[in-house]
Amino acid sequence: MKIAVICANGKAGKLIAEEAERRGHEVTAVVRGKNRSAAKSAIIKDLFDLSKDDLKGFDAVVDAFGAWTPETLPQHAASLRKICDVLSGSSARLYVVGGAGSLYLDAEHKTRLMDAPEFPAVFMGVAQATADAFYELRERRDVTWTYLCPAADFRAEGERTGKYKIAGEMFTTNAKGESFISYADYAAAMLDVMESGKYADERISVYTE
Question: Phi, psi at residue 195, to the nearest 5°?
Fold first, then answer.
């Protein structure tokens, strides 16, 4: 496949680009500065300046954007909106690196992980920002998307084990009651989902067994 990875210099984006290259896909990094990913080609451009021509001809586009400071958190929704506008009406599939905070804790879909009393306050801003971006995304009818949530404990330095499972919108733990996944395993899961062609217009999650 021809795959564009937006924010390929970031921690998640870099590993997704590397995984895609390892599997023999034609990968293009979309970065603001020098391409530091494994992708052999690059579009050097701020994502907010992307045009339809920039992303024309790709089979899949990965949104690996991340923001963490209070002043930049609104960019989660703004950046995803921009990418959707650029891809509007195209045949490219959009794959979004999501967040776990908005996953449901109950079958009625009334309570989210971020609503739990024990949810760390330090992560509430990011959880709300990514949730807002997702809620806007799921109302789109002009883009085919898949939103992949990592486990609650998203480990940047963890190893690639290949021992992960795909779940739905319910917050899911392993047999020990743990919810974690490495960035490397998440990247592998992202490519597996992409290659499967499944989960169109769905939010799914991934965690380590």
Answer: -70, -25
What value does the CA radius of gyration of the chain take, rounded to a whole number of Å? 16
Residue with tokens 């998640």, as numbered in its chain: 12
| Cβ-Cβ contacts under 8 Å for 162 (sequence gap 6 or more) | 185, 188
Which among 10, 11, 147, 12 is positioned nearest to 80, based on CA atoms? 147
Closest CA to 79 of 36, 121, 30, 112: 30
Across 28-51, b (16+ Cβ under 10 Å) vs e yields bbbbeeebebbbeebbeeebeebe
Torsion of Cα atoms, 164 then 99 then 38 then 18, to 10°: 10
Cα separation, 63 vs 5, whole angstroms: 6
Return d(Cα 63, Cα 52) in angstroms, integer: 15
- Encode pLDDT of 123-148 as tens digits: 999 999 999 999 999 999 999 999 99
Q: With a threshold of 0.85, does the pTM exceed it?
A: yes
- How far apart, in whole angstroms, are the C-alpha atoms of residue 104 and residue 168? 9
Q: How far apart are CA 165 and CA 112, in angstroms?
A: 20
